[in-house]
């Protein structure tokens, strides 16, 4: 008999799987680092890890590395895991590589160049150029000078010819390059002693990691997260995955997780960054079932952060920093208890400490 699971159970499972209820932890035991922690914006990867109980020495550059990986976005990983990560994030096939590089695939196809071969060619050029830390713009200019026309595009805003952006980003790890932490514009540098693993351990398999951290899910939802073809994801779907029903939709979980949906609701309050993994699942109506609220949380540009209260998205927040003072503007979607408002204010204090500034106030709107 197929188990029926409601959205509250799904959200509780994800919060626990992603360790949002954890008061403290270690890099080695932080589950979200298996799939990568997106590091976009000032309240990106490190804030996501602080929300999962990491602090102090655990967040040093020695233990973490920043790579362009899934969807071409910067993600944090354990430095010791980089060989396995490189194997895990590589495209599944040539069509998959073509989908991930978007419009760059068209001129390559017209020139008879395979997508994987193109990524390898760009990676070889990047490897030859980046022998020491080098800012992204300089790397792009030098690599563009080495590449033929199918790899290049004219950029009207810059009035210059560049490499296509996605092949550039996705080739960086293939070239053995990482992003220097905290640099803007990004600085690329060689990864010391880097060599990709020749196979992907189950722990780092992206499909399994998605099911483990963002399940229950369908192949299409995982494919959308990876920017990969559904066909490729289905071909690699775990044979042992267990079928469940979520709001009448057939989804799957890993066998080890099939009996983990009856735990009590997670009693936490967190200010999640706009690109926190908890908000990255591709079943947005499960997370926020009101379309108007979903539009507020996921606008086309300028995403806010999410207020999580007792397992639900309870509203949004935005930082307003002036000098050394931070104001956190909180928009709640319903009237909150005094306890919840106090907990949100406490999280705003934590955010200010993370940014190494002083909290001026938390402004509430309901």
Q: Could you list some keywords that capture this structure?
A:
14 helices; 16 strands; five-stranded mixed sheet; three-stranded mixed sheet; 366 residues; alpha+beta
Topology of helices and strands:
Elements (H helix, E strand, L loop, with lengths): L2 E3 L1 H11 L19 E2 L6 H6 L13 E5 L5 E5 L3 H8 L4 H7 L4 H6 L4 H15 L4 E2 H9 L7 E4 L4 E4 L1 H10 L2 E3 L7 E4 L15 H9 L4 H8 L3 H6 L6 E5 L2 E5 L15 E4 L11 H4 L3 H7 L7 E5 L2 E11 L2 E8 L5 H18 L2 E8 L1
Parallel strand pairs: 1-10, 15-16
Antiparallel strand pairs: 2-4, 3-4, 5-9, 6-7, 8-9, 10-11, 12-13, 13-14, 14-15
Helix pairs in contact: 6-7, 6-8
Structural shape:
globular
Strand order of the largest sheet: 12-13-14-15-16
Largest sheet: 5 strands, mixed
The count of strands amounts to: 16
Distance between the termini: 43 Å
Percent of residues in β-strands: 15-25%
On the 0 to 100 scale, the average pLDDT is: 95
Count of DSSP H/I helices: 14
Low-confidence spans: pLDDT under 50, at least 5 residues? Answer: none
Q: Helix coverage percent of residues? A: 25-40%
Broad structural category: alpha+beta
Q: H/E series, N to C?
A: EHEHEEHHHHEHEEHEEHHHEEEHHEEEHE
Query: Roughly how many Å is the radius of gyration?
Result: 21 Å
Structure description:
A hairpin with a 4-residue loop joins strand 6 (152-155) and strand 7. Among the domains are: 101-179, no CATH class; 269-361, no CATH class. The protein is built from 14 helices and 16 strands. The strands form five sheets. A five-stranded mixed sheet has the order 12-13-14-15-16, with helices on both faces. The chain has a three-stranded mixed sheet with strand order 1-10-11. The chain has a three-stranded antiparallel sheet with strand order 2-4-3. The protein is of the alpha+beta class. It has helices spanning 7-17, 45-50, 82-89, 94-100, 105-110, 115-129, 136-144, 165-174, 206-214, 219-226, 230-235, 284-287, 291-297, 338-355; strands spanning 3-5, 37-38, 64-68, 74-78, 134-135, 152-155, 160-163, 177-179, 187-190, 242-246, 249-253, 269-272, 305-309, 312-322, 325-332, 358-365.
């Amino acid at each position: 008999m197929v188990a029926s699971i409601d959205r509250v159970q799904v959200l509780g499972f994800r919060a626990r799987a992603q360790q949002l209820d954890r008061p403290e932890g270690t890099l080695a035991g932080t589950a979200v680092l298996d799939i990568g922690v997106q590091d976009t914006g000032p309240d990106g990867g490190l804030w996501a890890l602080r929300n999962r109980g990491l602090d102090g020495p655990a967040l040093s550059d020695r233990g973490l590395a920043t790579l362009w990986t899934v969807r071409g976005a910067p993600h944090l990983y354990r430095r010791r895991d980089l060989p396995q990560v490189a194997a895990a994030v590589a495209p599944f096939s040539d069509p998959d590589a073509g989908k991930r590089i978007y419009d760059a695939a068209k001129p390559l196809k017209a020139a008879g160049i395979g997508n994987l071969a193109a990524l390898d060619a760009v990676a070889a050029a990047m490897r030859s150029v980046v022998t020491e830390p080098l800012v992204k713009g300089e790397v792009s200019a030098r690599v563009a000078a080495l590449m033929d026309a199918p790899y290049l595009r004219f950029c009207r805003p810059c009035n210059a010819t560049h490499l296509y952006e996605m092949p550039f980003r996705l080739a960086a790890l293939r070239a053995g390059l990482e992003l220097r932490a905290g640099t803007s514009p990004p600085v690329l540098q060689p990864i010391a002693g880097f060599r990709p693993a020749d196979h992907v351990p189950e722990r780092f398999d992206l499909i399994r990691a998605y099911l483990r951290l963002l399940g229950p899910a369908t192949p299409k939802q995982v494919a959308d997260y990876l920017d990969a073809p559904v066909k490729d994801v289905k071909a690699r779907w775990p044979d042992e995955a267990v079928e469940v029903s979520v709001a009448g939709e057939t989804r799957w979980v890993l066998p080890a997780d099939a009996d983990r949906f009856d735990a009590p609701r997670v009693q936490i309050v967190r200010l999640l960054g706009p690109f926190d993994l908890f908000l990255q699942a591709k079943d947005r109506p499960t997370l926020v079932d009101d379309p108007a609220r979903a539009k507020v949380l996921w606008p086309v540009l300028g995403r806010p952060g999410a207020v999580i209260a007792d397992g639900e998205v309870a509203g949004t927040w935005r930082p307003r920093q002036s000098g050394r003072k931070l104001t956190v503007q909180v928009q709640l979607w319903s009237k909150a208890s005094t306890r919840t408002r106090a907990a949100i204010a406490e999280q705003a204090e934590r955010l200010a400490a993370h940014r190494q500034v002083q909290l001026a106030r938390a402004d509430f709107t309901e």
